[in-house]
Amino acid sequence: MNQAETALWWARARAAGPQRIPPGGPTPAGMLRLPEPDGSGAWLLPVLPDSASAAVLDELGLPGHVLEHPNDTARVLAACVRCCWADPAGPLWPGVAAPWEQVAAAFMAIVGREEAVSHRALLAGVRRLARSGWLLWDEGAPAIRLGPRVAAWNAAQLSTLREMCRSMPSAGGEVPGHPA
Amino acid sequence: MLDELTTEAAVLRVYRQAFAVLAREAGAMILDADLIDVDEAILEAFAAAGSDGLTAAEVVAACHRFDARVVERRLGVLRDYRAISKVVDRPNAQHYRAAFAPYIMLLFLRRLAERGGQSELHQLLTLEHLNVSHQDAVAGDGQASVSRLTKVFRLLANELTSLVQRGAAEALRENAQLLWGNRSLIVQAEEVHAVVLGRWPGLGSQCALLRISLAAYGDAIEAAAGRLIEQAGATRALGFLSAETWVSFARRSDTETLAAVLDSFVFDAPAPWLSPQALAEAVESARPAGGTRSRPPRPDDSQDVAEKDLMPTDDTAELQATAERLLGDRGAASVAELLDEAGDWPTGRRLAAEMIAIHHHPDLGFELRWGDGLRIEAESFPSWVSDGWFGRLAEAPQ
Q1: Do residues B271 and A131 lie in contact, with contact meaning Cβ atoms separated by under 8 Å?
Q2: Which of the residues B52, B197, B336, B380 could staple to B385 if both were Cys, CB 3.0 to 4.6 A apart?
């Protein structure tokens, strides 16, 4: 893959988010290739060095991408991580598909609101996250998977997540890592 | 002379016919653009009718989309301007036919209204180019052509310049079609100019006038565009049209048309960053918000109990005195006997309680012993008493 093609892939990733490609073919420089578990394709995820990632904006106190309802959205993602992370000892990607009801129960256990209110927040959060590549979910689909962007979290961040999953209120009493 | 008069009359007739579609009534301009639609319907009816023509009633019937009175009034106006005339010119003839000039005019007006006259200008320039390039053309044609173009561009430039200098920005925006496609207008005019100058070098002074008027038009465009951009700011292109135009564009366009607007733009994908730390904090912060929040402890309002009240009460002396009083110099007394001495149940009850308290007091040398017997006297007080003795302990610790 030459320089121009690499630049093109980076431009695509910037304009349209992580890209799904058919299996095979070269990987552009600086990108992570995340194969789908069933081998039907792969995701190209731009990997930025720590000194250039979005976290730097936080450190510098600069405004990043605007996210509506940041707290609820983060809770939705937390609920999904808890339901989809099959083996908390291993990597997050690709995870397993979690049924919508399970995610909804996990989210309700976090927020503890009425069901209607919580469902609305969940649906909005899932839509936002699916649009930006954090989740894989088609409108109306019965199951949710983690999106390719979760693979960008590094090992230290994963241990934060492990701790979070352990301390999260359980929904339906299932053990973390052994979803029903 | 007669020929000239005839020619003039013919020209006047065409003018009048052409003007008919714009006439509200004889001698006045229309005020409502919808009347043009009525005229068009009338002329269509005549076109469909063939050479026999139509009666007024037939025209009204053919134009049933419109109010009959309106159609009749338009018929009258068109007749006054000779845009329609009797097939046979007799006083009682009923059939009319239409002239073609009004319809041509109508088409022209329609185009002018839709395109703002821009394409007419382009066609005019093309025609001028053909005229001056024609092999039969003479210097007079070239001069006439250059002079016409000079006037057209002078008028355009004057209108724009006055708008830029004095008009409100809104007026400038409404006339923005004068700005569109202007570069190609100038290029076309320059081509005509080049042909004329090449063929008839003697027309140099007229050509210089044309060049000046073209340059003036170019300057006016620059000034107007600058003014519009300055006024519209960052959304410069949006300011070109009125808000209503944009709204109707957005309502009536299909998805592809709407999407085509953003063809040349690149947007970043939605890419909010969510760190695991933020996730953990959000989950953590959600908990107190739940409905199961517990009540904070209330401050204790009651007064502090005095310290002496907290000390254990010591009634040893009182109980000792009571026991001595009950027993007197006796070593022991039966409970039944003591109760009989008490006399009534409230006193006897208190007495029983005191005896039990004395019995249980660790420092007092008295005891209460119960036996198996039972004294029953249904009529007297107490009606029954268990067999029991209250007395001093054998080896009193005192």
Answers
A1: no
A2: B336
